[in-house]
Amino acid sequence: MPTSIITADDHPLILKGLNDYLLEKQFNVIASAKNGKEAFTLINAHQPDIAILDIQMPILTGLQVAEKCKTEGLHTKIIIITFEKSEEIYNKAKSLGIYGYILKEFAIAEIEHCIASVLEERSYFSPELIEYLEIKETPEELKTLTDTEMKVLKLITENKTAKEIADVLYISARTVEKHKSNIRNKLKLKSNANSFVLFAKEHEEFLSKYT
C-alpha cells in the first residue's frame, strides 16, 4: 500500500510543485492544507503515515502542528520544510520528535530520500543544515568555562562593571574578579580589559543563552 501523505504550505505554487512531485513518485497524497490549523485537522482525521509541513504557516506554524500531534498522541511522522537555517528551530524540532527537516531549496532533491529514511524510523535532516550548524558549534575554548564563567563573560559583552556583574549574579565583586582571572587563564587572554571585551563580543552568539 502506498505511503499516505498530507502536505501543507501557504504558498500555492510550492504546494502544487511538492504534490505533483510526490504523485509522480507514486506516493499517496491524500490531502493538502494551506494553513496550520487545517493541516492539524487533516492529520487528526486521516492519521497519514507522514505529514510534510511548511514551518511558517498562518494560524499554526509547522512546529505548533507537530507539538499538537505529540500532545494528542498521533503517530503521523512529521517532516518540516523551511528556508530557515536555525539552531533554535533545529533544537525545537528534535525535542518534538520531528523526523525530517528539509531546506526548501533542496526539497525536491531530498524529499524522496527523506521519506525513505523516515519510513525506516530514521530521522533525516538536510546535510546543508547540519553542515551549517556544525560550523556554529561552541568553540572548544569556551567549553572549558563553567556556567558561572560563561555568565560573567556574557555580562562583559553588555559592558557591565565588576560591581554590576556581582549584583546580577548575587556574588561579591571580589568573586567576579576571581572568575575573570580564571577565564583569562583558560582562554589565554592578555591582561588588558580590551582583550576580554573583544573576545566576548566575537563569541556573543554562543553566550546568548546565559542570563
CATH class of the largest domain: Alpha Beta
- Give me the CATH architecture of the largest domain, please: 3-Layer(aba) Sandwich
Low-pLDDT stretches = none
Query: Average pLDDT across residues?
Result: 89
How many helical stretches? 11
What brief labels describe this structure?
single chain, 211 residues, alpha/beta, Rossmann fold, Arc Repressor Mutant, subunit A, 2 domains, six-stranded parallel β-sheet, 11 helices, 54% helix, elongated
General description of the model:
The protein has 211 residues and is α/β, with parallel strands linked by helices. The protein folds into two domains: 4-135, Response regulator (Rossmann fold); 140-207, Arc Repressor Mutant, subunit A (Orthogonal Bundle), CATH 1.10.10.10. 54% of the residues lie in helices and 13% in strands. The chain is built from eleven helices and six strands. It has helices at residues 12-24, 36-46, 62-72, 87-95, 107-119, 127-135, 147-157, 162-169, 173-187, 193-202, 204-207; strands at 4-8, 28-33, 50-54, 77-82, 100-103, 124-125. The protein has a six-stranded parallel β-sheet, with helices on both faces. Strand 4 (77-82), helix 4 (87-95) and strand 5 form a beta-alpha-beta unit. Helix 2 runs parallel beside helix 3 and helix 7 crosses helix 9 (173-187). The longest helix is centred in the C-terminal third of the chain and has 15 residues, at 173-187. The chain is elongated, with a radius of gyration of 23 Å. The mean pLDDT is 89.
